[in-house]
């Protein structure tokens, strides 16, 4: 038996496998039906069709038995062939899924590596943000790890006075702030300005000791 899925160019799908399994089930049903015929006749697959004297038995339907035995033989060959098709289809399907999974994992690994290479380590962490403050409106969150705060970055950061000086000189001017948040790079624009609370930001930043 050669199904439409035997072409090397066609992509095997789960529907193809389901169709093959349905054909297998149909063949098994036919084989069972022919075995039932033989059982009704009381001869089975190997039982003799001649009597003790070598004459054709008169107590059974010889034509029906021979037809059933022949069809069982043919159907068993078909069954063997379709089982091989199912095995090959499942192998191709699993191989393709495995290749896709490995490709996705490799791409995710490369992306993570690229992010590690391109993003510098953080030098400070946000440990408090007041509601309604400039920092809050800009999107800064507790736990954010700062890699860039205006002109201050990992390379030139020495202490919190660096950030305080940038803030004082940038009142009313937007500063680009870059943070790590749950492993992702997040950029925002933060404008130091007067508000109802203390300072120009409304957040507390602490250095990260490396």
How far the N terminus sits from the C terminus, by CA atoms, comes to: 69 Å
Q: Quote the average pLDDT.
A: 88
Could you say how many structural domains there are in total?
2
Helix and strand succession?
HHEHEEHEEE
Poorly predicted runs are: 1-9
SS-derived structural category: alpha+beta
Shape field: rod-shaped
Q: What summary fits the major beta sheet?
A: 6 strands, antiparallel
Keywords: Chaperone, Coiled coil
Pfam families: Nas2_N, PDZ_6
Protein name: 26S proteasome non-ATPase regulatory subunit 9
GO cellular component, one term: cytoplasm
Describe this protein's structure.
- This protein has helices spanning 14-41, 62-118, 134-138, 160-169, and strands spanning 124-129, 145-149, 152-153, 175-181, 184-190, 203-207.
- The protein is α+β, with helices and mostly antiparallel strands and 210 residues long.
- It folds into two domains: 14-118; 124-207, Pdz3 Domain (Roll), CATH 2.30.42.
- Strands 1, 2, 3, 4, 5 and 6 form a six-stranded antiparallel beta sheet that branches.
- Strand 4 (175-181) and strand 5 (184-190) form a beta hairpin.
- Helix 1 runs antiparallel to helix 2 (62-118).
- The longest helix is centred in the middle third of the chain and has 57 residues, at 62-118.
- It is rod-shaped and about 120 Å long.
């Amino acid at each position: 038996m050669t199904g439409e899925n035997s072409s090397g160019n066609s992509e095997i799908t789960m529907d193809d496998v389901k169709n093959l399994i349905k054909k297998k089930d149909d063949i098994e049903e036919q084989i069972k039906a022919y075995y039932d015929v033989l059982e009704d006749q009381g001869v089975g697959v190997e039982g003799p069709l001649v009597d003790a004297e070598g004459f054709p038995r008169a107590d059974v339907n010889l034509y029906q038995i021979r037809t059933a035995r022949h069809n069982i033989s043919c159907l068993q060959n078909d069954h063997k062939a379709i089982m091989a098709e199912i095995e090959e289809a499942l192998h191709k399907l699993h191989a393709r899924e495995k290749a896709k999974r490995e490709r996705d994992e490799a791409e995710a690994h490369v992306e993570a590596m690229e992010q590690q290479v391109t993003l510098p380590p953080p030098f400070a962490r946000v440990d408090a943000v007041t509601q309604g403050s400039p920092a809050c409106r800009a999107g800064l969150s507790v736990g954010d790890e700062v890699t860039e705060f205006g002109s201050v970055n990992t390379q030139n950061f020495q202490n919190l006075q660096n950030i305080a000086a940038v803030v004082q000189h940038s009142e009313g001017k937007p500063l680009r702030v870059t943070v790590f948040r749950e492993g992702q790079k997040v950029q925002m624009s933060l404008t130091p300005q007067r508000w109802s609370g203390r300072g120009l930001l409304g957040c507390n930043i602490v250095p990260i000791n490396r």
